[in-house]
Amino acid sequence: MSALFNNYARRPIHIVKGSGTTVIDDKGKSYLDFTSGIAVLSLGHSHPVIVNAIQEQSEKLMHISNLFESPEQEQLAQSLIEGTHFAHAFFCNSGAEANEAAIKLARKHTSKSTIITFEQSFHGRTFGAMSATGQDKVKSGFGPLLQTFKTLPFNDSHALEEAVDDSVAAIMLEIIQGEGGVNEITPEFAATISCLCKEKGILLIVDEIQTGIGRTGTKYAYEQTILQPDILTLAKGLGGGFPIGAMIGTAKLYESFGPGSHGTTFGGNPLAMAVASATIGQVFNKQFLEDVKKKSVFLVSKLCEILPENQFELRGKGLLLGIKCKEEVASIIQQAEENGLLLVQAGSNVIRLLPPLTVTEEEMEQAVSILSSLVLTAQYK
Ligand SMILES: *Cc1c(COP(=O)(O)O)cnc(C)c1O
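Above: the input record for the complex with pyridoxal-5'-phosphate. Below: its predicted structure, written as tokens.
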């Protein structure tokens, strides 16, 4: 019996090192990592910029409390908000924590309690974030949950218009539901949300924990919609592998998070700031983001060559792509692993592709060639 709790369905391989898109297990077998630690390793494994940032900052100062000034936090905040309509940032250690901060800020600012979220969404595992999540399997057995959240069908403008009343503090959503099946927001739904928020003074919280930091080919995915979020939450790709979360918000929210209102011991420590600044230094670059878009076009075109049209549906943006299959995909993912390609599911019948943003064309071709034999077998099963 394991000394660990059994809360993860772990795959029976032990990865011991990685470089770029490649990882190697304890038996010396190598794999193409198209999970990136679930959209975390923006620059791939052991990127020299990340390794250097950790080394240099850890020799100087790893941790100092939020009792003291932090030019490192100021600098990262500035990079995150530059060129956007956002004005302030708060740093924490994970995605769920970023969402907790967003939920608290929205309630405090509006003095209202209802937050509308959507089916198939995923916002994290802490109590607030779990209650916000629109998937029963995440919440089952943990009730009673926070009554704050009203969960509506995603991309259903009519249901949303019906549900909005004076008690609503905020609407909270992902631009692409990553865990829930790589489901993209439709332009029509984004338009409805935009109007409702303006008309009724409702705050818009966009959870970009998976879609942010260049993953979809722009700094943030909301830029590709008409939405102007009041609050944005970030984590995963922000630290390039180092744990960090962030919430950024507009100027009008500043007064609602005064001294003592919210905080964290580890959040915003100089080491996390240095690594995230190094990551952003690479990713928030016009050419880098253009390349992500080009890589996406390349990967999509290669996938289209091997996927018979009526059997599969390609979803997503940038390097957050999903192949929706007619059947459950667990066995395809396992066979891919045996053939040297690491993938992750989204929902029960979507294969999710999340390579590092630094993936090469050659690696994408290799991955597609591994996939091609498997999906064709699956098709004729
Ligand atoms: C992963 C994820 C979270 C939770 O982040 P943790 O760091 O695991 O707490 C929240 N929202 C979205 C969209 C995510 O993909």
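Notes for the reader.
The mean pLDDT is 96.
Residues 336 and 342 are 7 Å apart (CA to CA).
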